Amino acid sequence: MLGIGLIKGLSVTFKNLFTPIFTIQYPDKKVGLLAYSKHINKSIFQILKENPKIFLMGIIGMVTIPVKIDQFPRFRGNEFVWYDDRCTACASCAKYCPLGIIEIVTHPAGENMQAGENYAIDKFDIDTGRCMFCGLCVEACPYDALHMGTDFERGNYSRVNLVLDKETLTSQDKNPSSWFRPQFESNEYNPWEESMSNSKDAGRHEKPSYQKIKEKWVNKRKTDG
Amino acid sequence: MSVKSEPITINLGPQHPSTHGVFRMRVTFDGETIIDLEPIFGYLHRGSEKLAEERTYTQIVTLTDRMDYVSSMLNNQGYILALEKLANIEPKPRGVWLRMIASELQRIASHLVAIGFLIQDLGAWGTPLTYAMREREKILQMFEMLCGARITNSYLRPGGVFMDAPVQFWDALSEFTQNFPSEIEELEKLLSSNEIIFSRTKGVATLTAEQALNASITGPILRSTGVDWDLRKSDPYDYYDQIKFNVPTHTAGDNYARYILRVQEMKESLSIVKQCVERIEPGPIRPHHDEVPNLVKPPIGDCYSAIEGSKGELGFYLVSDGSISPYRWHVRSSSLINLTLLKEMLVGTLFGDLFVTFGSIDINMGEVDR
Ligand code: SF4
Ligand code: SF4
Description:
The complex is a heterodimer.
Chain A: H1 4-16, E1 28-31, H2 33-40, H3 44-50, H4 52-59, E2 63-66, E3 77-82, H5 92-96, E4 102-108, E5 119-127, H6 136-140, E6 146-149, E7 163-164, H7 166-171, H8 182-186, H9 210-224
Antiparallel strand pairs in A: 1-2, 3-6, 4-5, 5-7
Chain B: E1 8-12, E2 24-30, E3 33-40, H1 48-51, H2 60-65, H3 72-87, H4 93-122, H5 127-147, E4 156-157, E5 160-161, H6 167-191, H7 195-201, H8 209-214, H9 220-223, H10 231-234, H11 255-279, E6 301-308, E7 313-320, E8 328-332, H12 334-338, H13 342-346, H14 351-361, H15 365-369
Antiparallel strand pairs in B: 1-2, 2-3, 4-5, 6-7, 7-8
The structure holds iron/sulfur cluster (SF4) (2 copies).
């Protein structure tokens, strides 16, 4: 009969009227007084005493609180995490980047300066304004020095500010994502709850000593011819 | 009294909310009837095929993500299969099962988008699209667990996938496979018996099997004309020959057949995912670096390999000159070729059927123009 299909369809939409809301409000949502007092950890009376205006807003459910959304641990975020004491300045990451946006400038320094086995990093720039967050640089890093970050709220007014230089990379909070880092996953490390400031935790292995690197790359090649 | 009318040419697009991207049509009407139509594309051309010539083989995976951005996993799979064929790489079984699960999930997600936007084009503003997007969201979240990105996945690597699936992915997947049949049922209850959808889509913009075959149309559009042609069955790649599934076909070849076929294909994809989960076994997910280095250097030669994408045959042609990047890369994009019969489908129909038909073809401008 004509119209039966329509009624069937409307019964579905009517049923969905009573299912929980799937949409997440972001970056902030409107809540009532109870949820607000829970959010700031204060009792309702304290709110009334300290800020009666917010109290009134809360009664009609119009107080805004920020919403934080956690992604999954492999999320490839905006800021990179880089441990300068793990990095050997091999520039694998720069070579592997499809867009060529990592700029590394080094000079020979340190213990075996003459042989040029130890490099000091003058410049380590990642132009995140052009980055597509593919994570190939992280995949290429042999010493687990570079990791994807987990932050994504990094809006900016100027493209110049999007370039992560060496100072920013060393000083910023380190919450690496577990993209291509199985050791983080086996440790059940959660980037949204803890940060990883110690570079020792970040790698599959210790950073090899210069002696070892030399053995592997220089002496072995000499004997191999 | 007869009304005197004369042809009028209207330019639709490239910026039009219903053209699913930057697509332009020059349509000539007589009254409300379409008498001529000329598709014009190229507004989203980014030169992916040229860009690939100066990237290494692994870096090209990121380019394929951006072709058909609602089915990136399938693009990844098609490209990686072509590369494996060219470089004689033997994939690892667990990697293959994982990428089959990922690409079948992607097919469901892509069909959900197609159905949602088809109904949106019909004028059902919002509701069915929201239901479809709600389900797609669950799939995208699973992709984020797998590879940290929802759209630009870059999950596949030569010989398998880049990382094994985390534990939470299997939990989410089993929950999804349990709940999804009832969600499809809900979508069908909402739409498949709806009289308005019947009257707007049945018998509109029909294609015959002969027409479709002559224009080398593939995918759901070809199957809706009654031709039983699915590359997963007729030329199996990966482990599809070890999986039991049906290829649904219809004979009407109209908009409704294309719509209902996608619903049935989603059910088949779900059953493929379930079988893959049963068959998957622990093991390595990609060959070791010693076997397949990061810089793949295939021998001199060329190869063509195609998969059944969500929109039809998605083929990749690679020419190698023995170096670390391809000499030439060409994509046979199903969206572009499926558009070639737009005029034949639409001449004689009314203005209101134009966007419905356009939605039921399900093209993606990122793939049309590359
Ligand atoms: S994430 Fe990709 S684009 Fe960004 S710096 Fe790394 S390799 Fe380059
Ligand atoms: S690949 Fe790793 S170790 Fe090498 S330069 Fe880049 S961050 Fe440093």
